[in-house]
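Question: Now follow the chain.
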Amino acid sequence: MTVAQVPPARLTVIAGPTAVGKGTVVTELRRRHPDLFVSVSATTRPPRPGERDGVHYHFVSDAEFDHLVASGQMLEWALVHGTHRYGTPRRPVQERLDAGEPAVLEIDLDGARQVRAAMPQARLVFIAPPSWEELVARLIGRGTEAPAERARRLDTARVELAAADEFDHIIVNDSVARATDQLEEVLGLSR
């Protein structure tokens, strides 16, 4: 089925391995479409340089995250790379969907699987690297993780890459502009 034959879904999930450039592609998509709702995930990891609470993530303590999960306030959540939890606050997404507006989630593989189980009508898009070597180079070039953390992330990336066929669409991020163009097409957005 070609992209043009698929009607736009109200909920689109974007996932892919670490350092593939999901955030960069979504940032470009938001630059092109500033009114597009992209959920801000909650995480227990500390902010990276330049990240702002409520903009890039909602940075929360382990206790706060426990409360969000226990009270059913998370649409999905997962322990990522064996170290920190990430999740999607349910309310902002549901409010957008209830208003008939599209919503985009940028999440990990486990989260995408949880959303697929809870909302089978969601469209899942996998962002893939052009090659394994390029993914490794991007992760190292980012310079934000120590060697042990990089190794953990690469182990996770192997598992995530093996699951790409679970997604409705696969977009290779060999160029941010081209990947964003393809994502726009999947979302039914025009420029």
User: Anything to note?
Assistant: DSSP finds seven helices and nine strands in the chain.
